[in-house]
Amino acid sequence: MAFDLKTFLTRVGSAVVFAAIMLVGLLWNEWAFIGLFLLVTILALKEYRILLEKIANVNFSKQEKANYMAVGIATYLVLISLQINVCNNLINSMLNHAQFYFIGLLIGFLILFFMFKKNANANYLLSGIGYVALSLGLMVQLRYQSLLLPVILIFSIWINDSMAYLTGSFIGKTKIAPSISPKKTIEGTIGGILFTLVIVFIWGINTSWFPVWQWLVIGAIASIVGTIGDLVESKLKRMADVKDSGNIMPGHGGALDRFDSLLFAAPFAFLFALLAIACFEFHVFG
Predict the structure, then answer these.
(1) 139: which of 115, 149, 238, 266 fits an S-S bond (Cβ 3.0–4.6 Å)?
(2) Is 284 within 8 Å of 149 (Cβ atoms)?
(3) Under DSSP, is residue 162 helix (H, G, I), strand (E, B) or coil?
């Protein structure tokens, strides 16, 4: 296939913009983090609904769409307002005073959802609440415990994806799930996991933030659970007969395409951090 300069520049340009937005949202402050993942929640919920419409061959009504989005956003707001961990966090404490309002909104929108749905397929929309809003709400809770945790998780996912691609390109022969993801191989998957664990180990022994074993567990969650998340989203796209979940990033797909691994890995990383990792305040700016 001939090299297409225009396509290449489009992909590079959108990747640079995406990286800039991610860095600002992740590192600036907690409000930026919350705003970033609220935006991702909205985009991913919409894409998931469109996939379901294609899979079930149904068009949801405007009321069903609106109620679904409202339930998803309310779920995200409830989760980020709960004081789940014991870390001293100003943003979490401020939002905690509003948690009952958020819970009331969630209950109200759930009532509206069931009152105004016109077909049984609308019930499947609720799976998107757990798949998207729950996961990203817990991602914010992970941020409350320490900025380092979501950064480590996302970094590990990126390393795993990159190394799995490179390893699979050079030595990959055995397809892991040819009907779902034809290019993903067992050799590439194992290579991605091993490279991720080696890199986080090296990073861990050269820093004093967390014990090395905790870095390794986060790396394992990112590479193993994240890979499962990638395969699940690929399966959804196969069922919907689409190449990408959306087109917010020219040449790279949609929000679900970019965050599929994180949607599965975030709840596991949060649970591990809640049970095993101490609070660690860390700031990039200020």
Answers:
(1) 266
(2) no
(3) helix
